[in-house]
Write a structure and sequence with these properties.
The complex is a heterodimer of chains A (330) and B (688). Chain A is built from 15 helices and nine strands. Chain A has 330 residues and is an alpha/beta fold. Chain A folds into two domains: 144 residues, 3-Layer(aba) Sandwich (D-Maltodextrin-Binding Protein, domain 2), CATH 3.40.190.10; 131 residues, D-Maltodextrin-Binding Protein, domain 2 (3-Layer(aba) Sandwich), CATH 3.40.190. The longest helix of chain A has 23 residues. About 2% of the residues of chain A have low confidence. Chain B has three domains: 134 residues, no CATH class; 143 residues, Orthogonal Bundle (MetI-like fold), CATH 1.10.3720.10; 266 residues, MetI-like fold (Orthogonal Bundle), CATH 1.10.3720.10. The longest helix of chain B has 45 residues. In chain B, 54% of the residues are buried. Classes of the chains: A alpha/beta (330), B mainly alpha (688). Chains A and B meet through α1, α2, β2, α4 and α5 of A and α2, α8, α14, α16 and α18 of B.
Chain lengths: 330, 688
């Protein structure tokens, strides 16, 4: 038996040496040509280096991130590292150098307190608006708005409360709360406006989207928290229910909220130390700005047409040279 | 308690079981009395002191917990612990990154990895033959080819790399601990058991954020969270094997004057080898089950495409990588099992070494050529593109569309009836009674079924749950867990008996059950949502899909183990099939039924977090909330601890209820190992 083991060991060492030798002398063929081409390109491209881009988990964000990346790679030879992360984890990464950019931020007062210079450790900073406007609110499927137009005013919601009842709402109307990632005051709004509804939390974006798709398809009553820009709008034009108008400060005390959500200018956030490098990628980030329609188009390529984010971004960049030029020239 | 509802009727049973049946009949009666009193009290106190609070409201306790985390975060630049763990994390990143560039992703400036698909496939196949046999080699080759053909070559290899690193660490850390677990004193082992319980039942979402804080984003976090979850099985199972080496053998060898070291290395470890391999196998399965969760913090692997598909509501796109995870689990499971069997054969000298060496040597030459080619030629380096994966995804999509549109009315009716008949009444009783009434009633039931030990466990766990500020959510969750377990046990009895009685059914069902157990729940979230809307019932369906396979297998194995001579005897007395099932097979398989209920409950509990993602609210939602918004981390942590407490409560009450004597405990463990269940704990918020 000992003999056998020795032989096995010898076999293993011989094979290891052979693999190493082969590995060392691998060259020739088209692989080496491409390698040479890559090396050349790396040498000739500027001093952009690597960009660690957080990719938060929604399609619109992917659209922003990959279009920025496509331009950065194409124009400045940057190496993009995309990292699939939720918001909170992304912000944690600024201080360690693992994340450089969060390109679409919907407002996180808590994270700003922790990571902006005023109150926190100063590892993150605001770079400015990305041009997209976030609209948060209460939405119903289009068939419902068409059949009962008065439902779009919150004053009439109680009239329909019974129609919104489900197995979960305990006899009241059901209001579908959203993914826990978002700031939501719906429980307070429902009680402060005296609505006969119960907030049932869908728990994830996938659950909310599936619910709205199904409600439109089967003409079911559904009201819930939703937001734009979102790829679902290309498919189903959800209608917003008007709540008492937002005024400054009406959402300051979470327990007393009785007003609509404000429109939010979405922001670009970046690592402070990364911004200080002030290279081409940083300049591109500063000038990067586009509209909700632009983003929705790329998001549609990804979600509806099944393109990879890279392909979708490349297509948009190719189709919109003037918009890209505006970013790179400034 | 619902778990008892599954017991076979306490009708006259064959001799050995009879007196136990009467014990159970009286327990039943007492439990019914407790419930009756509870219902009466509830009628008058409905809605009083329920400790319910708005879902998005915080408490002092939650704020303090969040503050603790924030303090650690704020101190990370100076905190020596964070610095040290971060350095370790960096090392994980470097290692996995290097392996990945060797095998999985382009190693810049090369357009391809150092070793292309042909070389990797050939080497893996060779390895399959070297550690096991030709059949395994073919299975490995087919699996790797499938990874490439369906278009997920790099993701699959990345997952293999992370799994490999985590499992290697789990073995290095776990085996010494297993030796201690198998030979240590009562107190130490008891403490370790609690720690392992905690690791196995605490939802991953609770510690995923802190892991990132200590170890960094990406593959380091993936390795660490995989390690945390994969470590317990090997400690538990291997430790169990070491402890159970027969005392006569140890005494016999001790009498020849061996040292403790010799005893361990020459007697205990070799004799426990088969069990240790089972532990390793379970560790690998647990590691794979973390694939999707690790993707939440940028962990590389097949979890990424699953999560991405989820953001687009792309059912087919999640299905294909999800099934590849299942395939990988099957491949690794069969390989480790066959490898241990082969090692045994070789150790006994029952092998033809000459032929094997010849094949291995010849194969090695082939591998070297393949590696060389895959470094030279683009076709051998980059897996040829095919649209097979896309076509399968499309087919799944259209099948899913057909199912949802066809069965929509039916599923809605099912959901509504289960909600009104089972869920709502039970929820009212548990969650809408004053907390002290529910608490007392639960303790009383625990006393009835589990005597003093059950009652003590209930008092301790329930008190802690009240202190964690989440009583009402805990009761909502408990309701869903009980209803889901009831459904799981109904399925387990029906299919378990059927499988045990028909070999054909067994053959057809087993692969389906394996898939149900290994497929990441994220793959079927959208289908169940489309069928049942975001509701508590959806969460129940998801957990039944996950928990039923284990319970079915345990029941089937338990019934198959009823000795054939007993069956013959009952047949000769003219039993009908139904009498045979209800009066002989089920009563004789009682310990398996208890075990199946216990495991079913814990598996269901491990899906609570998934339930939070599909509209069930309660503790699952709180955990997801804590992960999604760091200012709510304290609430998530409290919810996670509450889930652990519910698990401990259920487990201890079940155990004291079963109160299995020593010899039966032995049989129990064997069943457990054969059916490949993580011993004693649930798997987790997630998978496998």
């Amino acid at each position: 038996m000992r003999n056998q083991r020795n032989r096995a060991a010898r076999l293993a060492s011989v094979s290891a040496v052979a693999v190493l030798t082969l590995a060392a002398c691998g060259s020739g063929g088209s692989i080496s040509e491409e390698t040479a081409a890559n090396e050349e390109k790396a040498a000739s491209s500027g001093d952009c280096g690597e960009v660690n881009m957080a990719v938060n988990p929604w399609v619109g964000y992917e659209a922003d991130a990959y279009v920025f990346g496509a331009v950065a790679e194409q124009e400045y030879g940057c190496t993009m590292n995309y990292k699939d992360l939720k918001e909170d984890v992304s912000w944690q990464g600024f201080g360690t150098g693992e994340v450089d950019v969060v390109i679409e931020d919907w407002g996180h007062p808590d994270l700003e307190d922790k990571f902006f210079a005023e109150k926190g450790d100063g590892s993150a900073m605001e770079v400015g608006p990305i041009g997209n406007v976030g609209v948060i609110g209460w939405f119903v499927p289009p068939w419902l708005a068409k059949e009962h137009p008065d439902i779009l005013d919150w004053n009439n919601l109680n009239k329909y409360a019974k129609d919104f009842a489900t197995s979960e709402s305990g006899g009241k109307g059901q209001f579908l709360g959203a993914d826990p990632s978002y700031v939501q005051f719906d429980e307070a709004i429902v009680s402060n406006l005296g609505l006969d509804f119960k907030v049932v939390f869908s728990g994830s974006e996938a659950a909310s989207i599936t619910a709205f798709q199904k409600a439109e398809e089967n003409k079911e009553f559904l009201i819930g928290y939703f937001y734009e820009p979102q790829w679902l709008f290309a498919d189903i034009d959800l209608q917003r229910v008007a709540l008492p108008e937002y005024t400054d400060g009406c959402q300051d005390d979470p327990a007393k909220v009785a007003c609509d959500y404000p429109e939010t200018d979405l922001n670009k956030i970046a690592s402070t130390s990364w911004m200080e490098e002030d290279g081409p990628a940083q300049k591109l980030l500063q000038s990067f700005s586009w509209t909700n329609d632009d983003q929705n188009l790329v998001a549609k390529y990804i979600s509806e047409d099944g393109m990879s984010p890279e392909d979708a971004a490349a297509k948009w960049v190719e189709d919109n040279p003037d918009k890209v030029a505006a970013w790179t020239q400034s | 308690m619902t778990t008892l509802a599954e017991r076979p009727p306490a009708a006259p049973a064959p001799e050995p079981v009879e007196d136990r049946s009467s014990v159970w009949a009286s327990k039943w009666a007492w439990a019914a009395v407790v419930v009756a009193v509870w219902v009466v009290v509830w009628r008058f106190t409905d809605g009083v002191d329920t400790l319910a609070r708005p879902v998005r409201e915080s408490t002092d306790l939650f704020d303090r917990l969040s503050q603790f985390r924030n303090d650690v975060l704020a101190s990370r630049d100076t905190n020596p612990v964070v610095q040290a763990t971060y350095a370790v994390g960096q090392w994980f990143v470097d290692t996995t990154d290097w392996l990945s560039r060797m095998l999985a992703v382009p190693d810049f400036p090369r357009p391809v990895p150092q070793v292309g698909w042909l070389g990797v496939l050939a080497a893996a196949t060779w390895l399959g033959y070297a550690v096991a046999n030709l059949r395994i080699a073919l299975l490995v080759a087919a699996s790797f080819a499938t990874f490439g053909l369906l278009g997920y070559w790099s993701d699959a290899l990345d997952l293999l790399i992370v799994t490999f690193v985590a499992v290697l660490l789990a073995v290095l850390i776990g085996l010494p601990l297993a030796v201690y677990y198998g030979t240590g004193g009562r107190v130490g082992v008891g403490m370790m058991t609690s720690l392992l319980d905690l690791l196995q039942t605490m939802p991953t979402f609770v510690y995923l954020g802190p892991i990132v804080l200590f170890f960094g984003i990406g593959s380091s976090a993936a390795v660490v969270c995989t390690l945390a979850y994969a470590l317990p099985p090997i400690i538990r199972i291997a430790g169990h094997g070491i402890r159970n080496v027969s005392t006569t053998t140890i005494e016999a060898t001790d009498s020849s004057g061996q040292t403790a070291r010799q005893r361990l290395l020459k007697v205990q470890l070799p004799m426990a080898r088969a069990t240790i391999v089972v532990g390793l196998n379970q560790t690998i399965m647990a590691a794979l089950s973390m694939a999707t969760l690790a993707a939440y913090v940028d962990g590389p692997g097949l979890g990424k495409p699953v999560l991405r598909a989820l953001t687009r509501n792309d059912v087919g796109g999640a299905f294909v990588p999800g099934m590849l995870i299942v395939l990988m689990a099957v491949m690794l499971d069969r390989t480790t099992t066959a490898a241990s069997r082969r090692a045994e054969i070789a150790a006994r000298g029952g092998d033809d070494p000459r032929l094997r060496r010849l094949v291995l040597g010849g194969g090695l030459v082939g591998v070297l050529v393949a590696v060389w080619l895959s470094r030279q030629q683009l076709w051998a380096a980059q897996f040829p593109e095919s649209d097979l994966g896309g076509r399968i995804a499309d087919a799944v999509d259209s099948a899913f569309g057909w199912i949802t549109s066809t069965f929509d009315g039916l599923t809605g009716a099912l959901k509504d009836s289960v909600s009104t008949v089972l869920l709502n009444p039970l929820q009212s009783l548990l969650a809408d009674s004053p907390w002290y009434v529910t608490g007392l009633a639960l303790v009383a039931i625990a006393y009835v079924v589990g005597r003093r030990r059950g009652a003590v466990a209930a008092v301790v766990c329930l008190t802690l749950i009240v202190l964690l500020d989440l009583w009402h959510s805990a009761m909502l969750t408990l309701t869903m867990v009980l209803v889901a377990t009831l459904l799981v046990m109904v399925l387990a009895l029906v299919f378990g008996v059927w499988m045990a009685r028909s070999r054909a059914v067994d053959l057809v069902l087993r692969p389906v059950l394996d898939a149900g157990q290994t497929i990441p729940p994220f793959v079927y979230l959208i289908p169940v949502l489309a069928l049942f809307d975001p509701t508590r019932f959806t969460a129940i369906v998801a957990s039944v899909v996950y928990a039923a396979p284990v319970a079915i297998k345990l029941v089937a194995d338990g019934i198959s183990a009823v000795s054939p001579s007993t069956l013959e005897a009952s047949r000769s007395t003219g039993c009908t099939t139904w009498q045979e099932i209800f009066k002989v097979q089920l009563p004789m398989a009682r310990s398996s039924l208890v075990l199946a209920t216990n495991q079913g409950l814990l598996y269901v509990l491990s899906m609570v977090v998934i339930g939070g993602l599909v509209g069930a609210g309660a503790l699952g939602y709180d955990v997801v909330l804590g992960f999604s918004r760091s200012e709510e981390w304290g609430k998530g942590a409290a919810a996670g601890l509450t889930i652990v407490l519910l698990g401990v409560l259920i487990d201890r009450v079940c155990r004291s209820a079963a109160d299995v004597p020593k010899d039966i405990a032995g049989a129990r463990t064997r069943t457990l190992l054969r059916s490949k269940v993580p011993v004693g704990g649930s798997p987790k918020s997630g998978l496998i």
